[in-house]
């Protein structure tokens, strides 16, 4: 039996069960509102698993804030991993650069990775994940006008880099 299983069945298991019953629906709605539909079930499940490894549930004064912080950290980790995968792909493409098409692809990836984070997030959510401006605004907690402004800036930056 794993430590986590023992914890779930032991004294902390009852506290975790109560926290789960009281906050499970709220967490799912909050994650959907903040991050959209994509991978919400996995993110929620991983959040509860992380919470299960918490030292003491009685020390958690604001469980909703704690749960949302865990989920936000997990989502950030996923975003960084996606960016690292892009960087690894760019590195592999550089090593294997045989024709102009691969060179162009590497250059485009480097241009996107060179965007400031706020612009890059909007660009990737739009162009890679296919989200609408309204969905991006909901996910990032910003207005649709801000999404539009950031996308305009991101595209202008990319165009300027391509002209060089």
Description:
The protein is mainly alpha-helical and 164 residues long. It has a domain at 1-80. 80% of the residues lie in helices and 0% in strands. The protein has 8 helices and no strands. The protein is elongated.
Labels describing this entry:
164 residues, mainly alpha, 8 helices, disordered N terminus
Produce a short descriptive summary.
By secondary structure, the chain is mostly helical. It has a domain at 1-80.
Question: What's the layout of helices and strands?
Answer:
Blueprint: H1 3-9, H2 11-35, H3 40-52, H4 63-95, H5 100-113, H6 117-127, H7 133-140, H8 144-163
Helix pairs in contact: 1-2, 2-3, 2-4, 2-7, 3-4, 4-5, 6-8, 7-8
Look at the structure and give the mean pLDDT.
82
| Structural class based on helices, strands and sheet pairing | mainly alpha
Put simply, the count of helices is 8
Largest sheet: none
Please identify the oligomeric state: single chain
- Percent range for helical residues? over 70%
Cα gyration radius (Å): 20 Å
């Amino acid at each position: 039996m794993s430590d986590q299983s023992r914890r779930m069945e032991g004294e902390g298991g009852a506290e975790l069960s109560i926290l789960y019953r009281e906050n499970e629906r709220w967490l799912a709605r909050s994650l959907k509102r903040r991050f959209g539909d994509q991978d919400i079930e996995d993110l929620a499940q991983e959040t509860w698993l992380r919470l299960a490894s918490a030292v003491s549930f009685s020390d958690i004064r604001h469980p909703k804030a704690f749960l949302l912080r865990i989920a936000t950290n997990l989502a950030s980790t996923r975003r960084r991993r996606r960016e690292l995968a892009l960087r690894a792909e760019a590195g592999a493409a550089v090593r294997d650069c045989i024709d102009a098409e691969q060179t162009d692809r590497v250059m485009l990836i480097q241009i996107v990775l060179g965007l400031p984070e706020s612009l890059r997030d909007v660009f990737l959510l739009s162009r890679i994940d296919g989200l609408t401006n309204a969905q991006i605004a909901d996910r990032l907690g910003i207005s649709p006008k801000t999404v539009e402004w950031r996308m305009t800036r991101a595209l202008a930056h990319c165009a300027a880099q391509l002209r060089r």
